[in-house]
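Appendix B: a complete holo record

For completeness, this appendix reproduces one full record from the ligand-bound portion of the collection. The bound molecule is flavin mononucleotide. The inputs are the chain sequence and the ligand SMILES; the output is the full three-dimensional arrangement of the complex, encoded as structure tokens. No fields have been trimmed.
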Amino acid sequence: MSLRDFLEVLDNEGLLVHVRRPVSTRYEAAAIMKKLDPKPVLFHEVREAPDFKLLGNLCADRRILARALGVSEQNLLKRIVEAMKHPGKGEIVEDPPCQEVMIDDPDLRRLPFLVFGERDGGPYMTAGIVIARDPELGHNASYHRLMLLDERRVAVRILPRHLDEFIRRGVKRVAIAVGNHPAFMLSAAVTWRLGVSELDIAAALAPIRYAKAVTSDILVPADCELVLEGRITDERADEGPFIDITGTYDIVRKERVIEIDCITMRRSPIFQQILPAGSEHRNLMGMPREAAIYAEASKVCDVVDVRLTPGGCNWLHCAISIRKRSDDDPKRVIEAALRAHQSLKHVIVVDDDIDLSNPYDLEWAIATRVQLDRDLVLRPNELGSSLDPSADQVTRRTCKAGLDATIPLTADRSKFIRAKIPGEDEVRIEDYVK
Ligand SMILES: Cc1cc2nc3c(=O)[nH]c(=O)nc-3n(C[C@H](O)[C@H](O)[C@H](O)COP(=O)(O)O)c2cc1C
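The structure of the chain with flavin mononucleotide bound, as generated:
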């Protein structure tokens, strides 16, 4: 299953926007991606990188992600949890499409690295999935934004997660896959147990095939568009500023440098970029965490749905709907959610009559069901997200909070239920207004 197969499906249904007029890598492509968000867009001509088409916003719409995995939107999280708990095995092939063309004297300046915002530290590549292999732990795949330094070198933002652990264990070689099927894109965003490979999680979501990279034993998605093969060096360089998921600028840090040795790609390659803070970025970051919260919270209560809300950057705020059996359930769910997603700052727990995708509904539950002196859980001085400008971004210390916005079990429920007008769902205005 390849990105190209999936683009064909989208195209046949009129869901892919084609931009045939040449666009620039400096602001223009990003501005169009932002204007079209969440519609997928294919740029046929990039002025500064004539060898590539450019794709944006592929996974910006949850319905498109559900489509790619062949499930309903309601079953998306359950499907991801299943794949995390029961990973698969992808077929391994020789002579893969992603190695149709081989470039052993690469010049990264020919690729459509984009300048997204005015304060960007340099041109960036944001949809590169870094794959590394540890002799004992196996493969790891994760996203890392890459800032162009020169024809062979990029600065790579690495948070203290699995890739960092691999590097500490001595891993140096990496392969960076670009232009991937949504199943692989989603899996690479999963943070799960060290030693469970995102390649296997992807294989449980869709029939993804793998092939050995040219300069190492690393497996790469056989049908992806382009692979940069290289090494993590001992050098550090300034990385940033760059727009992060909150839509604010992340600070400059000394980050590691990757040197690229060769590039392999398909003929007529499609490069891919993710708009920082756009729906695709927020979906990919958020959905695997929603799945992890769903799994953890389901251990303590009957969970109906979980949403990292768009207004909370799909990262810092979580809404959880439950079928409450005890008045202690919401507090247990709040604890479980904070355990499952360390960056989470605010959690709100509601009854299952509240639609989590509707911010008005959520606020209505807070307005009509909350007494703060009874329903608020405060957790000061906890380890949180480095992305929240209101927290200490270096020590990551922050104040977390949970809100129980459910109806007390002992209360008279009839006071809390939204009044309905008989026929309001069925009435057809066309029958009355001609
Ligand atoms: C679009 C996108 C961009 C990301 N950028 C970075 C990044 O620049 N650096 C980083 O360390 N993590 C980044 N992440 C988060 C990691 O890729 C993600 O947490 C991943 O699951 C970590 O994998 P691991 O559990 O194998 O460590 C990004 C995630 C997404 C979806």
